[in-house]
């Protein structure tokens, strides 16, 4: 297993998928919360996109050092920056980032804070409005009322909820510095389709494309279609 060390001294596991050794352009493929870089969606992208790709596990995920967190969006944007610098040090030109779910939102935060790549493809990013924040806020209120700090079945704590509820995606969208493409499933059970429309609105001219997909959050049945869309974005970028 190959690793590099991030700014916090944690060793993060990674894998290259090199389609053309003479081409130093590369795309970063990011895994979402609960998954690692070898999960079906992300390995499928690396295998089927006709570009060089780089996958890695965020801290606390897969084979990387660190503790898992359901939150950590700002620190993970820093991890992306560390990856970009690591790849540049190896002679690569980082053309873009492909993120899904949590990592799609983190990619947009990265764009606002660092913004050193040309293209970001954000698949099912969450705008932190509607169902998910309401649910989290309700759970947080229950914890506050009975004085307990609970860990939920999906590994999220009260502290993580409070961190997530402070994320202002409007702020980051309005400060994004890359060309951003949004892909969202109409039948996404985790993130409402209307979230994607919020991104389009707040990104303004930075949003270069918005694609609705006939699928759920895990892109069931449309992975080939998503690869086709991403391939076209890469060709047009």
Automatic annotation (TrEMBL):
Gene3D superfamilies: alpha/beta hydrolase. InterPro entries: AB_hydrolase_fold. PANTHER family: ALPHA_BETA-HYDROLASES SUPERFAMILY PROTEIN (PTHR42886:SF53), RE40534P-RELATED (PTHR42886). This is Serine aminopeptidase S33 domain-containing protein. It comes from Blepharisma stoltei.
